[in-house]
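Thanks for the sequence, V.! I ran 3-cyanoalanine hydratase right away. Repeating your input here for the record:
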Amino acid sequence: MQATVPVSSSLHTTSTAADPTALSTQTNNMALVPAPPSETPLFAEVDMCSDSSATTVRATVIQASTVFYDTPATLDKAERFLAEAAGYGSQLVVFPEAFIGGYPRGSSFGATIGSRTAKGREDFRKYHASAIDVPGPEVDRLAAMAGRYKVYLVMGVIEREGYTLYCTVLFFDSQGHYMGKHRKVMPTAVERIVWGFGDGSTIPVFGTPIGKIGAAICWENRMPLLRTAMYGKGIEIYCAPTADSRDTWQATMTHIALEGGCFVLSANQFCRRKDYPPPPEYVFLGVEEDPTPDSVVCAGGSVIISPLGTVLAGPNYDGEALISADLDLGEIARAKFDFDVVGHYSRPEVLSLTVRDHPTNAVMFTSASEKGEASRK
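Predicted structure:
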């Protein structure tokens, strides 16, 4: 059963699809990243029951727009949505791609092959100023928010490292600890002008009391080998922050849920032209007609899908919303009875994947390693 009801200034779509008869017993923990230790039990307020087969997780994806060029206001907005989700009982909350820092839809940054414009350089300066350092004060605030509302938080951000930007997802546990990050490994098309490339060192899957959680961003979800690496780490709750609101995106999300035998949580922004700065400060390119302030420039489509390919909540194209569902973790084992992509349905003697999961750095200083070696002698 699915219903849409007003919640404060947003819509809240929810589905209750919990079956307490079974729990995934998957044991593939290859390269699994443990959640940071805590002095107090995680989710003390949630009765996990002595019978672990009764485990369900209430998850929410947030469909909302960035306050463009205003990171403090965007953080305030994130906290309002997080408080609403926590009030509804959510244990896991997923925000869209580039929510903190903004998705620069329609912008060319004044770049053509062989030249850049002065305005495009200034656009990049402002975009760079809206990004966040990891670690940094904004990360500390997000961690505090996760701890305050006792939720696992998956947040899309624009990460700044020096003068290079990355489209990144940050992970926080319900006790207010920053767990780690995933950097988008392959920005799409013109995104490559403004974002750097992630590497194999930031493709984590975190083992938590509510399941094994990881993320891939937008069109990197269409990369079969990246998905396979995440399946190899035993992902159970697959988060897919995106900027794609087309109908074809829904087919991708359903396929991943079926292929991976995992829950898929896709969060997208819902944006109107007025959510971006007005012209001439911010100009939308690549559209047939100049959008009016109320023109929808990203229609959302956020969705939650079960390991058997059932749509549990969404897709929502109506506006900013909280989209929630109860995830019966037993559904993972039921799905993998048919198809376990890196288990009984794999043929490693025929097909295999090697993941280079070390950091790739342009500059390495041998003096640092030599000092470390000397201190051990």
